[in-house]
Amino acid sequence: MAPTLGRRGFLGYLGTAAAGTAAGAGAGVVGARALDADEPTAVGVRRTGEAVSPWGAHQPGIAAHPGAVTELVALDLRPALHRAGDVEALARLMRVWTTDVEALTAGRGTPGDTAPWLATANADLTVTVGLGPRLFDEPWGLTPPRGFGRVPAMKHDRLDDAWSGGDLVAVVSGRDGTTVGHAVRRLVADAAPFAALRWRQTGSWQPHDAQGRPHTGRNLFGQVDGSANPRPGTDLFDQTVWVKDGLWAGGTTLVVRRIRMDLPTWDELTRSEQERSVGRDLATGAPLTGGGELDDVQLGAREEGRFVIAEKSHVRRSHPSTNGGRRIFRKGANYEAYVDGRAEAGLLFQSYQADLGDQFVPIQRTLDEADELNEWTTAVGSAEFAVPPGWREGEWMGQSVLA
Amino acid sequence: MAPTLGRRGFLGYLGTAAAGTAAGAGAGVVGARALDADEPTAVGVRRTGEAVSPWGAHQPGIAAHPGAVTELVALDLRPALHRAGDVEALARLMRVWTTDVEALTAGRGTPGDTAPWLATANADLTVTVGLGPRLFDEPWGLTPPRGFGRVPAMKHDRLDDAWSGGDLVAVVSGRDGTTVGHAVRRLVADAAPFAALRWRQTGSWQPHDAQGRPHTGRNLFGQVDGSANPRPGTDLFDQTVWVKDGLWAGGTTLVVRRIRMDLPTWDELTRSEQERSVGRDLATGAPLTGGGELDDVQLGAREEGRFVIAEKSHVRRSHPSTNGGRRIFRKGANYEAYVDGRAEAGLLFQSYQADLGDQFVPIQRTLDEADELNEWTTAVGSAEFAVPPGWREGEWMGQSVLA
Fold first, then answer.
1. A225 carries an active-site annotation
2. ipTM value for the complex
3. Which residues of B form the catalytic set?
């Protein structure tokens, strides 16, 4: 496990990160259109209404503002590939998917597409691909990003295999479910010689406010969700998310958690109980210590001798200062489903971090030990993926880590 | 059963319908903004980006261009209400829902809303409410719209109770699943003293083309779906959809069908086989006899002695000239689901017509007798509802038919 990434580590990154920012900001959008108008939100960089380019230093879906629909689909490689540790076959699949992603995000059908007209430009479509932990075991022998591995069991987890694990993930986000669903079907169909569907989860987000401006968005508890994120386009974001150097430079790691939310018992709380458990104002997302949604919480602030931000509140437990300076970049998608005839609602949670073992795991442990929200939330699925860097035209996804 | 609505009947409607059009077109959008810019598509009138007013001669969601997400939710009234035929209680529920719909479509939380911030303005939210057939049986004794009743069994149907029937329906459409899902949860929660959830189905649509212009949209076969609709804002639309006079004037009837589509076997067809079964070009939606998407098919056209539009093609079987001049106004939403561990895809089909018995039923019989598409499509759910007219500020939904 890598050493703790403290303040000193952050400062050490600045030189590289600043150079990386300009490239990263430009990489996400096709054409020469100025990005000044695209003010980054807490959950991503707003799109300009043009197709998101598949090419760049990083896979563009991570820093992009979320679409209204996000589907996450995991696949397992065929047993024969596993037995052989067949990196060549995996590379062929990556080439197939590269062609698919380049077509779909531009609004074109894939080669062999049976309904190519369902691909549409300007659907804000992004596809992010990652590789699961088995590919770094024998006989594959691929080199993982630093700190990557399976997330250890947490005491509040109630994981269901049906929503956990996987050798490959595709995170497909866009403006409508028909476009997104079509992209998922093509990716799954074209992967068939190599891999089979393991799970598929669909969620929604409100990416814009009533004036049509991109905003952070809310989960089904009504909470503004993602305010404390490092802002895409900043050095802090780059340091938090992207692997700095080595084979995986420009890549990241992804943890997908299916977090069931108990809406009926949450609804029984008073509003002040709800706000106290989070540490934020429900209406605005602002910290209970004041300021605006994007201002930092004042963890030391006291009222009548007691902390304004409660000891076990989510914002305190997840705050970098409670976690040795560690951060993640999180995105969410709300889901409602019927599982075994029972209504289930919750959040499809994505956590991106350069170092899974040194960022996600210790923060999650802090939350698992004591977080008021554990009372109303339960992880029922969990999966982790190493996310290769972006690729350039003529290259293919994962080329730098597989070739 | 009412007499056939032929050409003579259509002409007879013109005077009334023309007067109704101006009111209807203006009713759907709040404020004085000109609607000239809102060119109607085959599946609805484009919104202007302002909240859709809940008030008007008709419930506004019917003629409105579909949202990216549509949820259909059916409820059953409590047994005690049924035993008593308690119209007073039903009227109380309609008042509660009226308050809810007026708030939600304006972007406000409902009274007692536990997460009012999930309501958002400019989400293109519409809610259409209807009453199921049991309410017109004893002991309720309500007077139904002419021709309203249960759709008779069709030989190709494989109906599942899980997706069929219901005493009440709410069709909730909007820009994103979080807003739509929140509205559905509030409606279901507020109905709890009166009614319980029977089924809930969610679908998606691509309401806009790559240039952001509203267009007809496609189903999961890739077909442009809805081109032959009477165009909202025309006399033909008004004649097709709205009950002309009597208690239900300004109302309509709705048939909801869950149509399973066998994508794998459809995908095995050649493109020309697919196009022949529909009678339209797949890429453009234009009739195989030429012209543009919205041009009528030339059913008499022949090539080498054979009809260009095949005898059993969907456009011929569903065409008004094959059905004594009868028409419906259809809307669709694509769904993908896992049912009993098996992937299922299809179309949540809504058919609106003034007279269910004289429009939907005979057309559906014609299709059931012979329609190429029956090979790849199966109705697995069916429900019918009488849809009250719109209401004015200070009134409540269903007032004219219940009070």
1. yes
2. 0.87
3. 225
